[in-house]
Amino acid sequence: MVERTAVIAALDAVIDPVSGQGLVAAGLVQGLVVAEDRAGFALEVDRRQAAAYAPVRDAAEAALKAIPGMARVSVILTAEAASAPAPRTAGLSKAAVDQGRPKAPVPTDRPAHVRRVLAVASGKGGVGKSTVAVNLAVALSRRGLSVGVLDADVYGPSLPTMLGVSGQPAYEDGAIIPHQAHGLKAMSVGLLTKMDDAMIWRGPMASQAITQMLSQTRWGTAEAPLDVLVIDLPPGTGDVQLTLIQKTPLDGAVIVSTPQEVALADARRAHTLFQKVGVPTLGLIENMSGDVFGRGGGEAEAARLSVPFLGDLPLDAALRQAGDAGRPLAAADPSGDVAKRFDVIAAATASALGL
Questions:
Q1: pLDDT score for 194
Q2: What's the pLDDT tens digit per position in 211-258?
């Protein structure tokens, strides 16, 4: 087993060219995770010095790989703009509030060889968004489309469990080779760390990790492009959502909610976010529909928002059990009622995306 002290010692043997100290002593090592045979962290530097630190990142990776028993290493170079001194005012001015916010990423093109990018979102956690994202991806694949799934929830990645995949992905010619399961190409930060590790990352660090997984993963090729990349967004409307919207042209978003008003209110906020940035909401899905949470709230909300209602999904124990077992129900029981509901949702989604 790799010891945390050995990892820290190895990183402190790599010298920061600016301070002359080891990386840990210089405060550049953020979100360090050490598991049985792997380690990972974010190397956080000033944006103006990012290029100069690429060799430092490589040296850190080499130092960690040299530790006996180390099998997997992940070092993410993340850069932030330098902060200016806070204005001295009696109250909080707009400049003071805006000062600590991460700068907007520079807009870029969609990932190479990806035809469409679909976001699956929710304003609230616990509504089954990831379950819907994975099963919707399977249903799209069953329509003959080439489909990838990116787990963008760096703080609570669930895709490895739901798809039954594990282990660090391979690298080839500088590109990440995604895992494949149930007809899908899959990438998640959960594949780079131990399942129960906590990712103690600030917003800009999480955003940088997502950007790298999005742009450096080989989703498709010129000969065999990916038809659609499904991005499972974390709940809310924070840094990760804004980064993806600003870094990648989204072709549409699907919003997941339960029938309760408390969840629908947050779904409303998610729709408002997409409206403000010009991303079309392709529809709303009511999940966990039935006696426990009620039914019909999602359809009524879709009508209020003037977006399509894509369908409802029952509160079904089999859906949860299949996800826990790493076999999405849309794949495990393709002729069942739930799979047929996902087929209907997938057909409407594919049509809206022009696929």
A1: 53
A2: 777 878 899 999 999 999 999 987 766 666 766 776 678 899 999 988
Q: How far is CA 87 from CA 83, 102, 232, in A?
A: 12, 17, 38
pTM, two decimal places: 0.69
Bridge partners (DSSP) of residue 228 are 116, 147
Taking phi first (over 0 means left), then psi (-120 to 50 degrees means alpha), and beta for anything else, what does residue 307 get?
beta
Phi-psi region of 20 (alpha: psi -120 to 50; beta: other; left: phi over 0): left
Handedness of CA 224, 228, 234, 236 (dihedral sign): positive
Tens-place pLDDT, residues 223-236 = 999 999 999 987 76
Taking the C-alpha atoms of residue 309 and residue 282, their distance in angstroms, rounded to an integer, is 9
Classify burial at 246, counting beta carbons within 10 Å of its beta carbon; exposed 0-12, middle 13-18, buried 19 or more. middle
Residue 226 has which token pair? Answer: 């990916």
- Residues whose CB is less than 8 angstroms from the CB of residue 97 and which lie 6 or more positions away in sequence, other chains included: none
CA separation for the pair 72, 336 (Å, rounded): 40
Paired tokens of 215: 């742009």
On whether the CB atoms of residues 212 and 76 are closer than 8 A, the answer is yes
Nearest CA among 217, 205, 105, 80 for reference residue 155 = 205
Residue with tokens 């093109």: 109
Listed residue (228, 250, 253) closest to 141, CA to CA:
228
Enumerate residues 6+ apart whose C-beta is below 8 A from 124: 235, 257, 262, 263, 266, 267
Nearest by Cα to 257 from 247, 265, 249: 265
Q: How many percent of the chain have pLDDT more than 70?
A: 81
Name the CA dihedral angle for 14, 18, 24, 29, rounded to a multiple of 10 degrees. -100
